Amino acid sequence: MKNSIFTMILLLNFLIFLFSTSNAQPIQFSPDIVIDTLENMAIRQHFPVISLDQHGNLGIIYSETLWNGQYGTDYFRYIRSDDGGQSFYGKSTIEGEPVPGIDYTSGTLVYDTLNNPIVSYIFYNWPSKVIIKKSHDGGNSFGSRLFSEWTYLYPLFNLFFDENNILYGVFPGIEDKPVVIKSYDQGETYPERHVVYTDSVYVAPEYISLVKCGNGDFLCFYSGINFSLFNNVHVFYSRSTDGCATWGPPVLFDSTDKRSTWPTVVTNGDDVYVAYFASTSSSAEILFSKSNNNGIFFEQPICITDLTTVIWNPTPDITFHPEVGICVIWDKSITPDVGVQFSRSTNYGNSFSSPINVNYGVHYKNNHAIAISDSREIFVVSKDTASRQVVLNKAQVPLAIKETPVITAGAELQVWPNPFNATVQLSTKNVSVRRITIFNLVGEVVFSVPDSEIIHGRNKNRWRFHFAEKKISSGVYIIQVQGKYRQYSRKILYLK
After folding, report:
1. Residue 196 has what DSSP assignment?
2. Which stretch of DSSP H or E encloses residue 292?
3. How far apart are CA 107 and CA 301, in angstroms?
4. Sequence-separated (6 or more) residues with CB below 8 Å from residue 171
5. Choices 3.40.50.720, 3.40.1000.10, 3.40.50.300, 2.120.10.10: CATH for 33-396
6. Cβ-based neighbours of 274, under 8 Å, separated by 6 or more
7. CA quadruple 401, 341, 210, 119: dihedral, nearest 10
8. What is the pLDDT of residues 173-225, one digit of tens each?
9. 118-169 pLDDT, tens digit each
10. Which DSSP letter does residue 11 get?
């Protein structure tokens, strides 16, 4: 008996060493999946944007041009998928004008708490107009414009909900400065409009990112020129500590001699991750920089990929998922066989994987072209220039079974519970715990306690589960605590 126990302990130690030191398995994207076929006088589609609804299903917005024999008419569409992108249905028209020369550029797609899509987009017929519309029937139809404002730039619109269900939007306004709007009623009205203070920085008509940090501050990133410092475009950011009402002076984000632009930003608790494009007359790179203190200090940038031969803006796009890592995509269509490319970091931005191809042939992506599901599927949308259609490529990330650092800024338990004791009690310090999951060593979910069954605050809660019904066998398991921003896990040995 003692020998068998000793053997089990040795086996456990070996398994812990094996899985703790193994790297994440390589990712491979699927071939192009056509989102919507060209029919009924449709001649091309472009500017796809993707998002996940409250149930994890796909929603995509894009522009479609119809030809009537004399001129083209642009229509702005919404379509969805509830089977992980294998098929699409429910195509609806957000807006369409039977006037030649009108273009619609996709901006952002988000969902309210009732799972109704809210879309922002650009009505382009000089001058441009930024527009927000909403569906009240799950995307079957879209009503009148809920927000509309002119701008002389060719802007890209950004929308997101915070944890309090306040909707924020940012775009380059008529003042040639970033403008932030807020909605307190799920995107129905926008009573607040605030201009971001940029001082002597002339804001370039390029991508603007607005994010909320873990401490409640807001950061607005933009490209601009300060002629007293440089004669070239650089990335700057401004900070608001009062919910976007007022803004501090612009801070120079990248002080190199390169032209830096197109900052795309995502937060993870107190961490701020930034990917952007930097170039000179002879070089071009996708760079990454991070802050661990809500954007007060940023580390030296690292190069994700060298794009020396690229002669246009590759429009990087960044996102983060606690089980997948930091993911960055960009265009690289300088040769006939390279389209959108992808890289990810599984160590919070300390290093990135070698770039891989999302697709082949000449593809162009828009902003907000990547989404990650809770089942660790990565979805990327782009336009295939050969077929003139919008397409989807997807990849499955296997469960990375390895130890992750315990970070107190995320989900936190006072003690690790024994999940195989049906009467065990949990004690949480804050409201950040969202899900507690148990996996076996092949990545299968044995049991999960979702957010709906966790009583938040300084309470003790039971698993509410009888393991005898599940016929749990002896072995090594992984228990994972997932919070709003972070997650961490621990291996456990269960002996019957």
Report:
1. P
2. none
3. 27
4. 107, 120, 130, 149, 151, 155, 156, 157, 158, 178, 179, 208
5. 2.120.10.10
6. 221, 235, 253, 263, 264, 265, 288, 289, 290, 298, 318
7. -100
8. 887 789 999 999 999 999 999 999 887 777 765 678 999 999 999 999 998 88
9. 999 887 766 678 899 999 999 999 999 999 998 766 556 789 999 889 999 9
10. H
For residues 36 and 45, is the Cβ–Cβ distance under 8 A? yes
What's the pTM? 0.76
> In CATH, what is the architecture of 401-494?
Sandwich (2.60)
Q: Where are the beta strands (DSSP E) in 281-419?
A: 284-291, 302-306, 317-321, 325-331, 340-345, 356-357, 363-364, 370-372, 377-384, 389-396
Are 34 and 42 in contact by the 8 Å Cβ rule? The answer is no
Cβ neighbours of residue 135 closer than 8 Å, sequence gap 6 or more: 78, 92, 116, 117, 118, 141, 142, 143
CA 19, 20, 23: angle at the middle one, nearest 5? 75
Which residues partner with 194 through β-bridges? 180
3-class secondary-structure state, position 16: helix
What residue spans in the chain does CATH classification 2.60.40.3080 cover? 401-494
Token pair, residue 411, equals: 């989900």
223-253 pLDDT, tens digit each: 888 776 666 788 999 999 999 999 999 999 9
Nearest C-alpha neighbor of 212 from the set 222, 220, 223, 203:
220
- CATH 2.120.10.10 spans which residues of the chain? 33-396
pLDDT band at 434 (very low <50, low <70, confident <90, very high): low
Question: CA–CA distance from 2 to each of 6, 9, 13, 282, 479 (Å)?
Answer: 6, 11, 17, 68, 27
Residues 199 and 173 sit within 8 Å (Cβ to Cβ): no
What own/partner pairs with CB < 8 Å and gap ≥ 24 does 464-472 have?
A: 465/422, 466/422, 467/420, 467/422, 468/422, 470/446, 472/420, 472/446
DSSP 295-326: TSS-PPPEEEEE-TT--S----EEEEETTTEE
Token pair belonging to 328: 């960055």
Beta bridge partners of 342: 329, 356
Sheet of 445-449: strands edge to edge? Answer: 445-449, 433-439, 475-483, 487-494
Structure tokens at 432: 């950040």
Cβ atoms of residues 33 and 394 within 8 Å: yes
Task: Quote the DSSP letter at residue 355.
Answer: P
